[in-house]
Amino acid sequence: MSGLEIRELECFLVLAEELHFGRAGERLYISQSRVSQLLAALEQRIGARLVERTSRRVRLTTLGERFLSELRPSYNELAATVQRARAAARGVDGTFRLGFQGTADARLMRAIAAFQERHPASVTDVVEIPFADPFGAVRDGDVDAAIVLLPVAEPDLVLGPVFASDPQTLAVSVRHAFAGRASLGAAELAGTSLIAARPPAPAYWREAQAPRTAPSTAPAAEVRTLQEGLTMVAADRGAMLLCRPTAEYHHRDDVVFVPVDGLPDSVLGMVWRRDGETARVREFARTVAATAATAIAA
After folding, report:
1. How far is the first Cα of the chain from the last one, in angstroms, to the nearest whole number?
2. 107-152 pLDDT per residue, tens
3. Could you tell me if 173 and 254 are in contact, meaning their C-beta atoms sit under 8 angstroms apart?
4. What residues does the HTH lysR-type domain cover (predicted)?
5. Per residue in 28-49, is it b (16+ CB within 10 Å) or e — as a string?
6. Rounded distance, CA 285 to CA 271, Å?
7. Does residue 195 surpass a pLDDT of 70?
8. 37, 50, 122, 228: which has the highest count of C-beta atoms within 10 A?
9. What ranges make up the beta strands (E) of 51-166?
10. Average per-residue pLDDT in the chain?
11. Buried b (16+ CB within 10 A) or exposed e, 226-255
12. Distances (CA, A) of 59 to 18, 21, 79, 173
């Protein structure tokens, strides 16, 4: 470890992605010759070639491939450690990035407003999360925490306070046989083709959003976003279960939302990475819990 230079490692990681000295330099804001210098210094430190360069292409050596596979997770963990230390040093003040699924309704906005009132030096950025990827933004570090549909059974994520629990409705086309009904029982969904999320949403999560009460008469369509799902519904390609607030928010003339009795409520909860808990995350979780408790009491 004597004399180890982080800049050399960063240069190697970027070059391994780009396989082009010029593009690597552009990403690192250094010259192409400086990329070559940093790589040469790292190779000298290791004692072997990591990269082969010809007039036509750049590629990693066998040792370079192995070094990359071992270096990347260690470097990512080091970067995460620095980020956690910075967040802890800054405390609650600063930017809090919050993801949400479905609808940023009045309850979520009340929690954000309460958080901002308690911490006026903080800023909350709200980011919509794709229906079919409830946990990706949290894992990738694009958001600090997210309000997502339950269940959550991910070992690397923490489930914090439950944010909302609402009855289910069935979104159907105005041409669907259920369109004129005032309500439905859960058993009546048997044989109905329910639109579901496609991967990368986990299988257990997809099943919870589109439960199979009985074999359907047609294969269910799979969608990435809520808007894709509603468009499929409007085209009469299937029906889609949505919580009541989301149904009310997404009112449209070609879709009818019919209440469904006998299904578990749709539940939202706050999640964050187990290794990404900061003072901001904990404080926002406390605010969400307090806001939810106030709503229940009211």
Report:
1. 60
2. 889 999 999 888 888 889 999 999 999 999 999 999 999 999 999 9
3. yes
4. 4-61
5. beeeeebbbebbeebbeeeeee
6. 9
7. yes
8. 50
9. 51-53, 58-60, 94-100, 122-128, 145-149, 157-166
10. 88
11. bebbbbbbbeebbbbbbbebbbeebeeeeb
12. 10, 11, 26, 54
Q: What Cα–Cα distance (Å) separates residue 2 from each residue in 5, 12, 128, 157, 266?
A: 9, 18, 45, 36, 55
Domains of the chain: 6-88 (1.10.10.10), 93-165+267-297 (3.40.190.10), 168-263 (3.40.190.10)
Which helix (H) or strand (E) covers residue 216, if one does? Answer: none
Q: What's the CA dihedral at 146, 149, 151, 152 to 10 degrees?
A: -20
Q: Give the Cβ contact number of residue 121 at 10 Å.
A: 10
Can you tell me the distance from the alpha carbon of 185 to that of 135, in angstroms, rounded to the nearest whole number? 31
pLDDT in tens, 16-56: 999 999 999 888 889 999 999 999 999 999 999 999 988 78
Would you say 119 and 93 are in contact if contact means Cβ atoms under 8 Å apart? yes
Instruction: Report cis status (omega within 30 of 0) of the bond before 134.
Output: no
Whether residue 161 has a cis bond before it, omega within 30° of 0: no
CA distance linking residue 23 with residue 35, whole number of Å: 10
Pairing of strands 168-173, 240-243: antiparallel
pLDDT band at 296 (very low <50, low <70, confident <90, very high): very low
**Cβ neighbour number for residue 272 with a 10 Å cutoff:** 24
Rounded distance between C-alpha atoms, residue 202 and residue 184, angstroms: 28
- The gap from C-alpha 138 to its chain's centroid, in whole angstroms, comes to 5
Amino acid at 37: Q
Quick one: which of 239, 227, 206, 255 has its CA closest to 128?
227
